[in-house]
Amino acid sequence: MAIIITDECINCGACEPECPNTAIYEGADDWRYSDGTSLEGDVVLPNGNAVNADNAQEPISDEIYYIVPDKCTECQGFHEEPQCAAVCPVDCCVPDEDHVETEEVLLGKQAFMHPDD
Ligand code: SF4
Ligand code: SF4
Protein backbone atom coordinates (compact mmCIF):
# COMPACT_ATOMS: atom_id res chain seq x y z
CA MET A 1 0.00 0.00 0.00
CA ALA A 2 1.28 3.45 -0.77
CA ILE A 3 1.32 6.27 1.73
CA ILE A 4 -0.84 9.36 1.18
CA ILE A 5 -0.44 12.89 2.57
CA THR A 6 -3.66 14.26 4.05
CA ASP A 7 -4.81 17.89 3.99
CA GLU A 8 -3.40 18.27 7.51
CA CYS A 9 -0.03 18.88 5.79
CA ILE A 10 1.60 22.15 6.88
CA ASN A 11 3.99 22.24 3.90
CA CYS A 12 7.09 22.05 6.10
CA GLY A 13 9.01 20.06 3.48
CA ALA A 14 10.63 17.67 5.97
CA CYS A 15 9.46 14.52 4.20
CA GLU A 16 10.59 15.26 0.64
CA PRO A 17 14.35 14.67 1.03
CA GLU A 18 13.75 11.52 3.09
CA CYS A 19 12.02 9.59 0.32
CA PRO A 20 14.34 6.96 -1.24
CA ASN A 21 12.13 6.79 -4.33
CA THR A 22 11.67 10.53 -4.90
CA ALA A 23 7.94 9.90 -4.66
CA ILE A 24 7.21 13.11 -2.72
CA TYR A 25 6.78 16.44 -4.45
CA GLU A 26 5.87 19.95 -3.38
CA GLY A 27 2.36 21.03 -4.30
CA ALA A 28 2.06 22.37 -7.87
CA ASP A 29 5.40 20.84 -8.92
CA ASP A 30 5.43 18.46 -11.91
CA TRP A 31 6.72 14.94 -11.28
CA ARG A 32 8.55 12.34 -13.39
CA TYR A 33 9.14 8.61 -13.12
CA SER A 34 12.81 9.34 -13.89
CA ASP A 35 13.32 11.66 -10.89
CA GLY A 36 15.59 9.84 -8.44
CA THR A 37 15.25 6.48 -10.20
CA SER A 38 17.04 4.53 -12.94
CA LEU A 39 14.08 4.87 -15.29
CA GLU A 40 14.51 6.78 -18.53
CA GLY A 41 12.71 7.02 -21.86
CA ASP A 42 9.90 4.63 -22.79
CA VAL A 43 9.16 2.07 -20.09
CA VAL A 44 6.39 -0.39 -19.25
CA LEU A 45 5.47 -0.11 -15.57
CA PRO A 46 4.94 -3.18 -13.38
CA ASN A 47 1.20 -2.45 -13.61
CA GLY A 48 1.38 -2.78 -17.40
CA ASN A 49 1.04 0.91 -18.28
CA ALA A 50 3.44 2.28 -20.90
CA VAL A 51 4.89 5.70 -20.13
CA ASN A 52 7.82 7.92 -20.99
CA ALA A 53 9.76 8.19 -17.74
CA ASP A 54 11.19 11.59 -18.66
CA ASN A 55 7.84 13.25 -19.36
CA ALA A 56 6.58 15.80 -16.83
CA GLN A 57 3.37 14.63 -15.16
CA GLU A 58 0.62 16.81 -13.73
CA PRO A 59 0.85 17.60 -10.00
CA ILE A 60 -1.46 15.47 -7.85
CA SER A 61 -1.99 18.45 -5.51
CA ASP A 62 -1.55 22.16 -6.06
CA GLU A 63 -1.75 23.09 -2.38
CA ILE A 64 0.17 20.55 -0.30
CA TYR A 65 3.02 18.10 -0.67
CA TYR A 66 1.90 14.92 -2.40
CA ILE A 67 3.06 11.34 -2.93
CA VAL A 68 3.03 9.60 -6.33
CA PRO A 69 1.45 6.18 -5.65
CA ASP A 70 3.31 4.51 -8.53
CA LYS A 71 6.66 5.55 -7.00
CA CYS A 72 5.91 4.89 -3.31
CA THR A 73 7.01 1.49 -2.00
CA GLU A 74 6.26 2.26 1.65
CA CYS A 75 10.08 2.42 1.76
CA GLN A 76 10.22 -1.37 1.18
CA GLY A 77 13.68 -2.32 -0.03
CA PHE A 78 15.29 0.62 1.74
CA HIS A 79 13.97 1.09 5.27
CA GLU A 80 12.01 -0.71 7.98
CA GLU A 81 9.27 1.91 8.07
CA PRO A 82 7.92 4.74 5.90
CA GLN A 83 10.41 7.56 6.29
CA CYS A 84 7.92 10.30 5.46
CA ALA A 85 5.63 9.18 8.27
CA ALA A 86 8.61 8.96 10.62
CA VAL A 87 9.64 12.60 10.12
CA CYS A 88 6.26 14.30 9.60
CA PRO A 89 5.61 16.65 12.54
CA VAL A 90 1.83 16.47 12.19
CA ASP A 91 1.48 12.74 11.38
CA CYS A 92 -0.31 13.35 8.11
CA CYS A 93 1.47 10.62 6.08
CA VAL A 94 -0.95 7.71 6.38
CA PRO A 95 -1.71 4.44 4.55
CA ASP A 96 -3.58 5.02 1.30
CA GLU A 97 -6.54 2.65 1.36
CA ASP A 98 -7.05 3.22 -2.37
CA HIS A 99 -3.59 1.84 -3.17
CA VAL A 100 -3.25 -1.41 -1.24
CA GLU A 101 -0.32 -3.57 -2.38
CA THR A 102 1.43 -6.67 -1.05
CA GLU A 103 5.02 -6.59 0.17
CA GLU A 104 5.94 -8.62 -2.92
CA VAL A 105 4.42 -6.00 -5.23
CA LEU A 106 6.10 -3.16 -3.32
CA LEU A 107 9.49 -4.85 -3.54
CA GLY A 108 8.86 -5.43 -7.25
CA LYS A 109 8.26 -1.70 -7.73
CA GLN A 110 11.44 -0.90 -5.81
CA ALA A 111 13.52 -3.31 -7.93
CA PHE A 112 11.96 -1.91 -11.12
CA MET A 113 12.90 1.67 -10.23
CA HIS A 114 16.33 0.82 -8.78
CA PRO A 115 17.63 -2.29 -10.59
CA ASP A 116 21.24 -1.61 -9.64
CA ASP A 117 20.70 -1.29 -5.86
S1 SF4 B 1 6.63 5.71 2.36
FE1 SF4 B 1 8.78 5.88 1.73
S2 SF4 B 1 8.69 5.57 -0.48
FE2 SF4 B 1 6.61 6.12 0.16
S3 SF4 B 1 6.50 8.33 -0.04
FE3 SF4 B 1 7.06 7.89 2.09
S4 SF4 B 1 9.31 8.03 2.10
FE4 SF4 B 1 8.67 7.80 -0.05
S1 SF4 C 1 6.57 16.30 6.63
FE1 SF4 C 1 4.31 16.22 6.84
S2 SF4 C 1 3.67 18.36 7.14
FE2 SF4 C 1 5.77 18.40 6.34
S3 SF4 C 1 5.50 18.58 4.08
FE3 SF4 C 1 5.69 16.40 4.56
S4 SF4 C 1 3.58 15.68 4.79
FE4 SF4 C 1 3.53 17.93 4.94
From TrEMBL:
InterPro entries: 4Fe4S_Fe-S-bd, 4Fe4S_Fe_S_CS. Keywords: Iron, Iron-sulfur, Metal-binding. Pfam families: Fer4_7. The keyword Iron-sulfur applies. GO terms for molecular function: iron-sulfur cluster binding; metal ion binding. Residues 1-29, 63-98 form the 4Fe-4S ferredoxin-type domain. It comes from the Bacteria. This is 4Fe-4S dicluster domain-containing protein. It comes from Mangrovimonas spongiae.
